[in-house]
Amino acid sequence: MTTATYVPPTREQVETIRRVLVHERDIERAAILLAAATCPDVKIPRLHAAETATIRAQRPPAHHDLPAALLRITRAIDTETEGLYHHQDAGHPDATPALRAIAFRLLELGFTIAEHAGLHTHDIETAVARAYDLPGYDEATAG
Question: Which phi and psi angles does 29 have, rounded to 5°?
């Protein structure tokens, strides 16, 4: 299990794991369910495939609880950037490249999501590319 792919468990997943741990006193099964709930890419023994599928199904798609999905996204971003902001506020410029890289990744993801949502973002993408001084977006090639 790596922190790079960790997702916090939902309340329902926590209750399922708690039941297995407290009431059934099955520490190994609880650990497997915790891994399945919090790390989508973790490999689970075939013996536990059905339970794994069940606990992973307890994470509803974003459109079922959009405010919760947006809050999870915000928390993930805050977790990655808060320390960088403090470092930068303390006068350390070495946080700036990391903040720029995170911002650019979020913009890339946002453009992809917007495109799937039917929005036309070409002008915004061009403005962002210019702000990041990406090749091929200078004034001579615009339009």
Answer: -65, -40
Tokens of 64: 């079922």
- Of 139, 130, 84, 137, residue with least CA distance to 107: 130
* pLDDT tens track for 43-64: 888 888 888 888 888 877 777 7
| Element at 50 (helix H, strand E) | helix 49-57
- Only one residue has tokens 């023994």, namely 45
Q: Report the distance separating Cα 2 and Cα 35, nearest Å.
A: 10
**pLDDT per residue over 116-141, tens digit each?**
999 999 899 899 989 888 887 766 55
The pTM is what? 0.61
**What span, in angstroms and rounded, lies between the C-alpha atoms of 90 and 75?**
23
CA distance 123 to 143: 9
In the chain, where are the structural domains located?
3-59, 63-141
